[in-house]
Every structure is written in C-alpha cells, then in structure tokens.
Design brief:
single chain, 12 strands, Rossmann fold, 8-stranded mixed sheet, 16 helices, N-(1-d-carboxylethyl)-l-norvaline Dehydrogenase, domain 2, alpha/beta, 2 domains
C-alpha cells in the first residue's frame, strides 16, 4: 500500500510523519524545492503525539509523486483544491483513491473537475469531516502534532464509504463512515470556531500581538457568537437532510477529556493549550474558513429558505473590514448539487 501526500504544510508534515510511523511507504509532494531539499537531506522529525525521525520520499514533480500511489491525500488549503484537482486529472491512474482532508467542499470540487474520469478510471474521491491533526511546523522537516480520536470520512459515491473505511482501518482507525460528502463538509466545526474567535481578537491579530488562540482568545462573547453560528449551520444541514453534531459534541468526540460547555472545551483542553493565534488577517482562519465554511452556510440557507441572521451579519461585517481578495472562493454550486 503506497500513499502520496500533496502539500508540505503543517498537516502535510503531520500525516507524513504519522504514515511513516505506521511503516507505510509514503511520498511527500511540495512545490517548494528548498523545502524538498531540506526534508530529503535531514528527514522529518515529529514530536507531540508522535516522536521520531523518518525519511519519506519527497519530490516537486507531481506526476512522479502520484505514480503507483494507491491513496493520494490532499493536505492543501481549500482555495487550492480545484487547482490540485485540475493538475491531477491527466495523471491519475485506474483505481486510485483521492482523500481531501478537512472537507471544505473539497470532494465536491474534485468530482466537478474530474468529471467522467471518476467512472472511466474507477477513481474513489473522498473527504474527511475534520482535520485529523492539530499540527505546527516551525520549519521544514519539523512538526509538533496532536492526534484526534476520530473523524468522519465520506466518499462521493456513498457505496464506497464503508469499504474505504474498512480498507484503511489498520492505518486510520480514527475514520468513521459519514453518510455523504455534503454531511462531511457541513459537519466540520472549524469555520464556526476559527472565524468568530479571530474577528473578536482582530486588534491583536492586526497588531501582530502573540496570543494563545483558544486559551486567551476564546472569550465568552466569542463563544456566544460561535454558538449562534453553529445553530444556523445545524439548521442548514437539516434542510439538506443531514443530521450533524453540534460543535461541543464534535469537539468532545475528538479528545479523551470531555467538557460540559464549549468555553471549557476550548480553553481547558490540553490539545489546544499551545495553539497560537494568527499573526495577520490574511490567514487560513479567514481565507479558508470564511469563503469555504461560513459563506456557504448563508448561501445554502438562501437556496433552501433557512434563515441565517447571525451568519449574514458576520459576513456583512467581514466584507466591510476586509479586502475582497481574502474572501474569494473557487466554489461553484447550485441546488442540483445537493440533490445527488
């Protein structure tokens, strides 16, 4: 069984270390030649939930990276999903599986781009409902990571979901089947947490003031906004026929320690104690979680007649204070996408 990891950022480092620790043949793809050189020369060292140093294959040649791979794990930001799908389309081979980590409509975009090739090449396209790792890579070849207890996994073809979970169980026992890729994306909790906490700490962020994102940034007021957005997320998902967990239940499912309220779950959980706040507003907590997380809740709400007043108000505020380039999206979906 051979894996290819696309993207050598924080979580790309983490999943590569995780796979290597499992003894799995793994190739890491990065667009950065210097990063590739460092990892090839010095290896990949992890600390936290894993500890050790490994020497994965590393390349800047995408065709080389995916050649003969059984599983291709896409670890990029959401705004790169469509571009990665377009680059992969001509070089994917019969029977390969593509898994987009952390959803954000990634599987939907891959299916849109790959089109008839999904059936013609017997490809499996899937996504996780949450990121499996909390990870920080301070420099190429180094990563600190925490590993969650479970995350959902859904294939674009629902009939392939359970067989995929079974095939990967020895390597990823954390994967649990989810009913659809709509449910896996709507079930992700990152946007409704990251965006409110970031915006409630905008002065700190703009001033480049270091702060612990959850421990110091998750105020009671920020949590109140999180909960309002979360109720609207759940209502929109219900209109799509999806039953999803509320944000507290989702957070508690990830980690051994359980909490009675969201404030404690975010500020007291050991896994979140070292997570630093962003140093600028041009950060994935905005550029990914707004256009691929918050904005679709409002858009789908309008399509299906579900009121989303808190989401709408937050989006209006964000469009007033942020450059439009930070809020741009590659998403293109219609009501028909939710009828499949």
């Amino acid at each position: 069984m051979k894996f290819t990891v696309i993207g050598a950022g924080n979580t790309g480092h983490a999943v590569t270390a995780y796979l290597m620790d499992k003894g799995v043949e793994t190739t890491l793809y990065t667009r950065d030649p210097e990063k590739a050189r460092i990892i090839a020369a010095e290896g990949l060292t992890a600390y936290g939930s894993l500890a050790g140093t490994w020497h994965p294959g590393v390349t800047c040649d995408l065709a080389e990276a995916v050649r003969d791979a059984d599983y291709i794990l896409v670890m990029t930001l959401a705004n790169a999903h469509r571009a990665v799908a377009e680059a992969l389309r001509p070089i994917l081979s019969e029977g390969q599986t593509v898994i987009v980590f952390n959803s954000n409509w990634g599987a939907l975009e891959f299916v849109q781009v790959l089109g008839e090739d999904v059936a013609a090449k017997n490809l499996t396209v899937a996504e996780t409902a949450a990121q499996l790792f909390i990870a920080a890579s301070p420099m190429p070849g180094r990563v600190r990571l925490s590993l969650k207890n479970k995350v959902g996994l859904a294939a674009a073809d629902p009939e392939k979901t359970e067989p995929l979970c079974a095939a990967l169980h020895e390597i990823f026992p954390q994967f649990e089947p989810v009913g659809s890729i709509i449910q896996s994306t709507m079930g992700t909790t990152n946007p409704v947490i990251h965006v409110p906490v970031t915006i409630c700490n905008a002065a700190r962020v703009e001033n480049g003031q270091p702060f612990l994102f959850y421990v110091e940034g998750a105020s009671h007021a920020a949590i109140d906004l999180v909960l309002q957005l979360d109720r609207e997320r759940i209502a929109v998902a219900k209109a799509l026929g999806c039953e999803i967990e509320d944000v507290l239940t989702g957070i508690n499912s990830f980690w051994p320690t359980k909490y009675d309220n969201l404030f404690d779950a975010l500020t007291k959980n050991p896994a979140y104690q070292q997570t630093m706040g962003p140093g600028k507003l041009d950060h994935r907590y905005i550029t990914e979680d707004v256009p691929y997380g918050i904005a679709p809740i409002a858009q789908i709400g309008r399509l299906f007649g579900v009121p989303t007043p808190a989401t709408d108000a937050l989006l209006a505020y964000l469009h007033c204070i942020l450059p439009e380039r930070l809020l741009q999206s590659t998403l293109t979906f219609t009501r028909e996408d939710f009828a499949k």
